[in-house]
């Protein structure tokens, strides 16, 4: 099954400009009226329509077989595989689709980085002879020190990707389909056998000249692959058609945003005729590919520079998150719409990555514990009952974020109607989700609401 070029071109012409809802209701740039949010997310699904895209005469990319892409380069006496999906089942299905174009043996597998959705299905591509497998010298460093927080990260991962949402609630994951075969994730991983040094590697495999360039960005162990003869560039997850996930709400170590921008700028210097991202459809036009990379690098750097200016002006992360915007000429580009990454999330991550948690305001050095603060908020409202009324009124006005914040105060108060507070929080989360076209935000709101409703969450997390 091959995807026609016409359908790929339509992807880039099918987006609708966001219609932001009333500022009194919305608390995020990715909040729009529910009908528009759903229309935008449905449009984005064209970016991972399942099938094989023929990039050049000898390069083929399988899209939509899992969350990420896997590609096959056909050489004289064998093929080269770029990334291997999450597990053997999805990798096997993708490889069968790719095999329509060549049955030559696999001579090499190249990992663009060590995220599980790019490395877990390698065994499906291994034949009678073990191919060479390439990764960077620091391959495996994608998660950094956050491995210690593995248990809570796993819970947050499930929410971010909406893994437990019902079919009625599911849309997609921003750069991937909602439903993927995850039961065998990682079961087919085969470790790298050849390390790519920091200064890169130029080599010939199966008669194909290619270059591997180390390029930290979404991960510290990322690299991109360049085919000089076909002018094809495989970007890994440093580029895909969405504003990049400079911070993942599942929880990640700081991703060096400035390095990410520089790595994408380096890709643009190659002026590729064909750009194959780690997720979403390849871009098969030279001008479009170079423009996309240039814009992407500029957008990332702009968010970084604006955040740094805010920091040095003495502003805190909350204020900066509401002030930083993409440059006006980039906001409507389809590859920079915030389907996956979020500008406000990015600014907070940059702030924390550069300065840590303290915002410089002595008021926040030792803030009141939540229970005491809730009591004082209730006193300001005229008592617990009045605070409860304010919470309900916020929900009725569809001021969902304020309703959420008041419900969190209510949970700490003796004599409060905690069941009502829980119901309000569930309704507010679903209200925000309906207005949200950022897929991780939407999935997280809905997943958390479901956990609250089922009683799965402890009182701490209420």
Give the gist of this structure.
With 462 residues, the protein is α/β, with parallel strands linked by helices. 37% of the residues lie in helices and 13% in strands.
Describe the structure.
The chain is elongated and about 80 Å long. Helices cover 37% and strands 13% of the residues. A seven-stranded mixed β-sheet has the order 1-2-3-4-5-6-7, with helices on one face. The chain has a five-stranded mixed β-sheet with strand order 8-9-10-11-12, with helices on one face. It has helices spanning 5-11, 34-44, 88-98, 116-119, 150-160, 257-269, 286-312, 317-323, 343-355, 370-381, 384-396, 400-410, 418-434, 439-454; strands at residues 51-56, 59-63, 70-74, 79-82, 106-110, 132-136, 194-196, 201-205, 208-214, 223-227, 232-236, 274-277. The chain contains 14 helices and twelve strands. Helix 11 packs parallel to helix 13 (418-434). The protein folds into two domains: 5-149 and 158-355, Metallo-beta-lactamase, Chain A; 368-454, Serine Threonine Protein Phosphatase 5, Tetratricopeptide repeat (Alpha Horseshoe). The model is unreliable at 5-17 and 22-26 (pLDDT under 50). It is of the alpha/beta class and 462 residues long.
Beta-strand content estimate: 5-15%
Number of continuous helical runs: 14
The helix-and-strand class reads: alpha/beta
Oligomer: single chain
- The gross shape turns out to be elongated
Tally of DSSP β-strands: 12
What's the average pLDDT?
93
List the helices and strands and how they pair.
Blueprint: H1 5-11, H2 34-44, E1 51-56, E2 59-63, E3 70-74, E4 79-82, H3 88-98, E5 106-110, H4 116-119, E6 132-136, H5 150-160, E7 194-196, E8 201-205, E9 208-214, E10 223-227, E11 232-236, H6 257-269, E12 274-277, H7 286-312, H8 317-323, H9 343-355, H10 370-381, H11 384-396, H12 400-410, H13 418-434, H14 439-454
Parallel strand pairs: 4-5, 5-6, 6-7, 11-12
Antiparallel strand pairs: 1-2, 2-3, 3-4, 8-9, 9-10, 10-11
Helix pairs in contact: 5-14, 6-7, 7-9, 8-9, 10-11, 11-12, 11-13, 12-13, 13-14
Protein name: MBL fold metallo-hydrolase
Organism: Rhodopirellula bahusiensis
Keywords: Hydrolase, Signal
């Amino acid at each position: 099954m091959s995807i026609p070029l016409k359908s790929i071109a339509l992807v880039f012409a099918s987006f609708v400009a966001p219609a932001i809802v009333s500022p009194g209701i919305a608390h995020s740039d990715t909040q729009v009226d529910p009908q528009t949010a759903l229309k935008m997310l449905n449009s984005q699904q064209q970016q991972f329509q399942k099938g094989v895209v023929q990039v050049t005469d000898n390069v083929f990319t399988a899209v939509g077989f899992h969350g990420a892409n896997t590609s096959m380069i056909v050489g004289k006496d064998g093929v080269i595989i770029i990334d291997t999906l999450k597990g053997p089942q999805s990798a096997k299905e993708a490889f069968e689709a790719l095999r329509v174009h060549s049955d030559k043996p696999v001579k090499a597998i190249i990992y663009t980085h060590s995220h599980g959705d790019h490395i877990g299905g390698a065994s499906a591509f291994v034949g009678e002879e073990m191919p060479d497998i390439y990764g960077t010298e620091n391959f495996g460093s994608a998660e950094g020190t956050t491995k210690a927080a593995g248990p809570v990260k796993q819970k947050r991962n499930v929410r971010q990707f909406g893994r437990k949402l019902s079919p009625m609630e599911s849309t997609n994951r921003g750069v991937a389909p909602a439903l993927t075969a995850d039961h065998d994730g990682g079961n087919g991983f085969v470790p790298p056998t050849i390390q790519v040094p920091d200064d890169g590697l130029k080599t010939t495999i199966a008669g194909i000249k290619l270059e591997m360039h180390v390029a930290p960005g979404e991960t510290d162990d990322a690299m991109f692959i360049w085919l000089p003869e076909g002018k094809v560039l495989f970007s890994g997850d440093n580029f895909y058609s969405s504003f990049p996930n400079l911070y993942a709400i599942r929880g990640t170590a700081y991703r060096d945003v400035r390095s990410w921008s520089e790595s994408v700028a380096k890709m643009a210097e190659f002026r590729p005729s064909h750009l194959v991202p780690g997720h979403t459809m390849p871009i098969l036009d030279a001008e479009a590919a170079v423009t996309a990379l240039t814009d992407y690098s500029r957008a990332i750097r702009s968010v970084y520079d604006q955040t740094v200016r805010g920091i040095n002006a003495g502003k805190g992360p909350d204020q900066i998150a509401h002030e930083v915007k993409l440059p006006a000429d980039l906001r409507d580009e389809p590859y920079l719409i915030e389907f996956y990454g979020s500008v406000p999330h990015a600014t907070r991550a940059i702030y924390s990555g550069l300065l840590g948690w303290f915002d410089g305001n002595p008021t926040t050095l030792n803030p009141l514990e939540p229970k005491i603060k809730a009591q004082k908020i209730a006193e300001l409202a005229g008592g617990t009952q009045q605070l409860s009324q304010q919470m309900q009124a916020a929900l009725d006005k569809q001021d969902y974020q304020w309703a959420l914040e008041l419900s969190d105060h209510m949970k700490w108060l003796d004599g409060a109607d905690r069941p009502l507070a829980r119901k309000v929080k569930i309704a507010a989360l679903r209200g925000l989700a309906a207005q949200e076209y950022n897929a991780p935000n939407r999935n997280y709101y809905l997943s958390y609401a479901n956990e609250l409703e089922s009683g799965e969450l402890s009182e701490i997390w209420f």
